[in-house]
Amino acid sequence: MVELPTRHLLDIASLADSSIEKLLRRTAALAEGAAVTPIDRTVANLFFEPSTRTRVSFELAAQRIGMRAISIELDRSSSTKGETLSDTAATLAAMGVDCLVLRHPETGRCHALAGEIGPGLALLNAGDGSGEHPSQALLDAATIARHGPDWPDLNLSVIGDIRHSRVARSGLALFRRLGAGRLRIAGPPELLPDSAELPGVEVCHSLPEAVDGANVIMMLRIQRERMDKAGWPDVERYHADWGLRETVLARARPNCLVMHPGPINRGVEIAADVADGPRSLILRQVRMGVFTRMAILEWLAGGLPAS
Amino acid sequence: MVELPTRHLLDIASLADSSIEKLLRRTAALAEGAAVTPIDRTVANLFFEPSTRTRVSFELAAQRIGMRAISIELDRSSSTKGETLSDTAATLAAMGVDCLVLRHPETGRCHALAGEIGPGLALLNAGDGSGEHPSQALLDAATIARHGPDWPDLNLSVIGDIRHSRVARSGLALFRRLGAGRLRIAGPPELLPDSAELPGVEVCHSLPEAVDGANVIMMLRIQRERMDKAGWPDVERYHADWGLRETVLARARPNCLVMHPGPINRGVEIAADVADGPRSLILRQVRMGVFTRMAILEWLAGGLPAS
Amino acid sequence: MVELPTRHLLDIASLADSSIEKLLRRTAALAEGAAVTPIDRTVANLFFEPSTRTRVSFELAAQRIGMRAISIELDRSSSTKGETLSDTAATLAAMGVDCLVLRHPETGRCHALAGEIGPGLALLNAGDGSGEHPSQALLDAATIARHGPDWPDLNLSVIGDIRHSRVARSGLALFRRLGAGRLRIAGPPELLPDSAELPGVEVCHSLPEAVDGANVIMMLRIQRERMDKAGWPDVERYHADWGLRETVLARARPNCLVMHPGPINRGVEIAADVADGPRSLILRQVRMGVFTRMAILEWLAGGLPAS
């Protein structure tokens, strides 16, 4: 019997087409109420950045498929006492943890860890700095697959701080592989990525230009300090130039859908009436997030050595 | 079939007599060892004030009736990143949370939230500022029902910082509805509520006056800064004037019972020998607290749409 | 029927030989895959010092034997609001907690608590100041029993900050009772214990002297401030004098094993290649830790009154 390497979910590029298809199909089935078989495995959520939303989504997903789950939030204290991350991971693996969900502020840290740990521990990148956030990309794709246009018809614009966004990076890479018809990005010049970074993605230089003709718009959260550095020191001006409002949305295709990874800043990157409006998929994204993470954890567990 | 509105537990006033009766009956049965049927629902404990005691009581209650539980404590970090409370609640509901246990420092915040959220999420007010704390009132009533006098015979005095106490407010409202014979309050003048606020409750102006003839005394926790502002800058003087000691307790009815919602300040509002004495119901209140919260969670789940 | 006193695990001295034997035998069986019967009991982990490692080990152990578990970390907030430790313990017991795992910075605090609480609550000392850490000693003994020499052949040296180490104190006491052939300690003079404190243990005054002829070496974590006070203000000098490196290890018995309770400081008390080398038992200790704690929790539950 050939020993297969332990599965990880680090980024979109290293995910096989067949795995993407399998994960999206299983997510859709779970959303329809498919039965789950309890999995006798342990998942640890190791968060070096606070994120109640993502941590809770993973905890609930693990509970729903019967996995044991523990959560460790290390931003608040120096609990690891200077231990290296790979020692922490090896320690958790030795304790019987099968799957490590890692959120880390450093870009590439999860990939580096994958090269440092032994076999038998599945890694799930739950966001690394300005790197990738593949479970978010999968949940966004699952939401579009369920509620949005078919991939060839998709005309999606991602708007905001693209440069620092792991959500944009993973999402655009995945949507492109799924055959998205047209992908655009837009945002303040300082917050756009280097031109070569996102092949197949058009760059727009204003909000109206990016909204024009879109049938899905994905707004990104903007951090106050980055808004400031990018030349928009006050929230009102940023909202006027880059906030999605009903008046701007009128330029999009009728029934254009609106997405946002959350948490949303009402009145900053998105107007409250748009966030709460009938075109908003925001809460559907959250809902699909739990099903997506159930599917991912099942898939990672399926790649682990027999227990 | 008529769709009934989702049940909440926000305060005592909006709780029907039949619900009070049902909750107290079920609590008593659970305390006697009644069987529980596991409930395939999820509860989230969302605490914006630290309270290990109340959070643990709810976690244990949820575990004992087989509900999935997650806890989020937000006083320690800015994990929600400026998200509004109703967005946090809607996000949790979208993740599959059925019941939200909320502790919030702002009076009325839980009631306001009930008007902001959609159907399908049951709210449980676990304490809002100086507002209400209905699960504490129910556990106190269950404790009195089990260990104290019959309601018409009850002669209960609540003593301490009544003005800021959600425990006193909810408790007195509930005991009155249950037909309590006599209800009195006492405390430093600055810490008494406005006279119209507690109908049917007598106001006493000294500790001995309030203790006189009582068969249950409920002492409240006093915060140092409020003691100070009320004119008792040192603990010894406060204890001499408002602390329950054996000598004062002699004025009460023989075998008068002593209650306190905890955590207690020994030597401040209550003498150590009284807290630990044979008349103290303090640990029985804690014990009934878990049974009461099991009953409440069962009742809230019973009002949710079929899952 | 005679009511037996509730079992506690406070230190090595008060643990009967028969209990040590039973615990080590059960740990070995669990490591071999012995079946477990779910235990309908509740354990609370109450940590007044941050320790992700120990808390997670106990949480996983409890989950694996089907016990309900809650964790309370109190270093980060004043959640107990000045409540005494014995009131916190009594409150948890009243809530239905059967077993309290306590980590406390004060030496002797867990023993004192054992004298303050009522029957029916089993206490497990998970580390008290510079006192004891019996579950660590048991897991270390279980690791030696499984991977090391027989007890009479054991030639073990503990090296580093012995004075403040509860790991050393509990471990040496246990190894001695198990019939260890030779036990030595070594460390900077300021970090050695008083001579009478460890009967049957030889004191060495240099690293090479302590390593010479050993077949198991246990390195201890050194805190920067203690290193400094002991006269080694820089890490490089400490490592040169007291850090275990391959060159020093050459003086030990061939195939000498290396232990460390973790978390390790690479390049301080232990060189990275030694920690990661074939003689290192460090991750095996971590693995045995979960089995040891499962065995301890089962044993404590067995001493509780019928539920």
Give a description of the structure.
Three copies of one chain form a homotrimer. By secondary structure, chain A is an alpha/beta fold. Chain A folds into two domains: 17-132 and 288-302, Rossmann fold; 149-280, Aspartate/ornithine carbamoyltransferase (Rossmann fold, 3-Layer(aba) Sandwich), CATH 3.40.50.1370. Chain A is 39% helix and 15% strand. Chain A has helices spanning 17-31, 52-64, 85-94, 109-116, 134-147, 166-177, 207-211, 224-229, 235-242, 246-249, 272-275, 282-302, and strands spanning 42-47, 68-73, 99-104, 122-128, 155-159, 182-186, 202-204, 216-219, 257-259. In chain A, the strands form two sheets. The first copy, chain A, has a five-stranded parallel beta sheet. In chain A, strands 2-1-3-4 form a four-stranded parallel beta sheet, with helices on both faces. In chain A, strand 1, helix 2 and strand 2 form a beta-alpha-beta unit. The radius of gyration of chain A is 19 Å and the shape is globular. Chains A and B meet through helix 2 and helix 12 of A and strand 2 and helix 3 of B.
